[in-house]
Amino acid sequence: MTIMLKWTESPTDNHRTSQNIITASFHFAKLAGQSLLASPTALAEFQQTTGLADFYWEVSYYQEPNTESPLAQVLAEVDGFVIFLHGWCGSHLIWEDLPIRLIEQYPRLVCLNLDISGFAQALYLDTSNKTEYARIDNMMASIEYWLGAIGLWPSTYRQQKPFYLFVGHSMGGGMLFYKNQPNWQNEIYGCYLMSPSMYYHDLKRSLFYRLVATAILIPYTGLIKILSSHGVVWVAMNEASQLVKREHTQNFKNSSLRTLKNTLDGIGKSPPPPRTDWSQFKVVLGNRDVLVSPKHMLNFVEQLGFKPDQIRVTMGDHYFFSYDETSPITHKHNRQTVLTDLITFCRQLQK
User: Fold this and answer.
1) Measured between alpha carbons, how far is 348 from 190 in angstroms, rounded to an integer?
2) Angle of CA points 179, 340, 187, to nearest 5°
């Protein structure tokens, strides 16, 4: 069965990223302006609900050789969707080639790679100073609202239900602790959390982020704030690829101080997760991560009821999966381990 998704007809950009793999990019506001969303009020409702002026995502999928299958047909027929959520001051680029490599090994996937929560091409409304939009639980709710707004969830239109695998790093991983349990009880889904930044369980880091967030808007300390924030970012990702470092530096430069402040504050004020079922969650940590304490996080997920096979600790820093020639060789191995984990997770969900 093919579901009519008008937004798939007009990507912002459409190009071949690898042999037989197509990547198309979309802007929510542009689609609304072209009347390609299901509802004429979809953009206004999205902005009111999320506080975001716009939303950007890329869709990567496998195309059979010598065929031209419409994207709407691909979305309706694949086994599942993998949704990538980056961290604070990041963008969809921090995942490097991971979505493409995932599809190369599992062609019946569609990867959705997003800019989220006020960064890169997903900016908050200039007229909104509301801090509740940047709360880490509300960030997760905005992702689920977007999935519904573009018609990919719930999956009631499918005879064969797809699975949904959410892959989050840092702030994006922390958001997944607040995945809505009741609304997804009839869906097949999993969550893969990499260096998840949420500090309900870690008072010291919670206070640190809230203090930094408060200091960002204090007048006359702009240079000190910029230098200190850059320092935190670079210390945390010292072993990441040059691409990741450049992307964070650029996004920090381009992000408003209020966005930086509100999102840091939202991470620091993590509420207790309301979920009771953690059976489809996996957590991966770096042993040299200075932003997410492996000790505190391991104690926390143990209290939640995670089992040993749901937890992995690797050798690396906050970006243990990011690799180029300047990174430790362990990061190269970690990247392959993450890819294998995701393929295995997808096949478990597909069954």
Assistant:
1) 10
2) 30
Lowest mean pLDDT among 144-148, 168-172, 257-261: 257-261
Percentage of the chain exceeding pLDDT 70: 92
Residue 216's pLDDT band, with cuts at 50, 70 and 90, is: confident
Residue pair 50/129 in contact by the 8 Å Cβ criterion? no
| pLDDT at position 225 over 80 | no
Written as one letter, the residue type at 6 is K
**Cβ of 22: how many Cβ atoms within 10 Å?**
19
User: Which residues, at least 6 apart from 35, have a Cβ–Cβ distance to it below 8 Å?
Assistant: 6
Cα separation, 172 vs 195, whole angstroms: 9
Residue 246 vs residues 233, 250, 342: alpha-carbon distances, Å: 11, 6, 26
pLDDT value of residue 107: 96
Cis peptide before 154 (omega within 30 of 0): yes
What is the C-alpha to C-alpha distance for residues 325 and 236, in angstroms, rounded to an integer?
Answer: 18
User: Are 270 and 174 a contacting pair, CB within 8 Å?
Assistant: yes
Q: In a 3-state reduction of DSSP, which class is residue 186?
A: coil
Q: Which helix (H) or strand (E) holds 169?
A: strand 163-169
C-alpha pair distances (Å), 128 with each of 125, 132, 137, 251, 351 = 5, 11, 18, 20, 44
Indicate yes or no: pTM above 0.90. Answer: yes
Mean pLDDT, all residues of the chain: 89
Find all residues with CB under 8 Å of 273, minimum gap 6, and list them.
177, 178, 198, 200, 304
What sign for the dihedral angle of Cα 230, 234, 235, 237? positive
Pick the CATH number of 6-350 from 3.40.50.1820, 3.90.550.10, 3.40.50.300, 3.40.50.2000: 3.40.50.1820
Coil, helix or strand at residue 78: coil
